[in-house]
Design goal:
Number of strands: 28
Shape: globular
Largest sheet: 4 strands, antiparallel
Oligomer: single chain
Radius of gyration: 19 Å
Strand content: over 45%
Structural class: mainly beta
Distance between the termini: 18 Å
Helix content: under 10%
Strand order of the largest sheet: 1-2-3-4
Length: 328
Amino acid sequence: MVNKLNKSFYNTVLSQTFTPCGNYLVVGDIYGTISVFHLSKLTNQGSSITKEDQLPKNTFTIKEDVQINSLLTTKSFLVVGTVGEILGYAWKNVKTSKKPSCSWSIEIPNSKDSFDKPDVNCLVLENENNLLFAACGDNNVYIFNIETRKEVRSLRGHKNYIHCINFFNNKLVSGGEDGLVLLWDVRGGPPVSRIEPHTRDKVARGELGPWIGGVGINDDWLLCGGGPRLSLWHLRSLNVSTVFPIDDKGIHVAEIYQDRIFAGGRSSLFYQMSFNGDIITEIPTSPVTSYSAVHQEEPFQTLCIAGSSPKIDVCSNFIYKNLQLSLY
């Protein structure tokens, strides 16, 4: 058991999400605790924010010292990815209850030759068909119907655990510890295509290893980074278009957002860049390593960055940090 003093200094936030209304930020840490912050209240207070305002309005523990790897928002539930299972909590309980009951759970299928429960490292929701994608530590991506909680199919092709997934127009991209980036048609079948960034001289960083920590995708482009440098690849040719000129020791956050690239990882900065590699903003971060970044445009514009720190950086205009939240 880790004492509270150690938690205050050494806690890590692996996952974040907003409530459906967008007024609250929900974060999950490595000790199994969910913390809820009242963001809309803070953005309306301006310069009169107190230290107490920056603390969570509610906290509860899913399970002692079981890390919360991923969080996802649906209209009715907070979806939590932990070790070996996915849990659903009703939003009204998340905001106020100190011991909310779990509304439903999905157990990740156990490999016949393994007694270890796999981490649920990343969750993505496809609303149109109610599909929940779960990237797991047993090298597989599982697809569940979120209404019935039944497994639809699994995507198998990685040789080591999967760190990240992203979805766009029936295409799913996954990146793993094995250095593979696989592109899937979620309607079934083997990977449509694959790249191994660590085999390309212009992006390889042998001293950091082959692992992929963040992926993004749209109709034309694939974004990936980890041990290899953050790079943008043309989907049709699978050739590298841009290698981003940022100073990092590993990428954990990579996202294509409109005409911009968001990226962070083991670095003192969180980056916003153009597709051709021009740096738009460099935001100093509280964590030594950023593991999670979430953003929204409505009901107010905000970007929240979290990682190896009990502090969470909030940027109300995506450009510069103007608020800091704290777990303790």
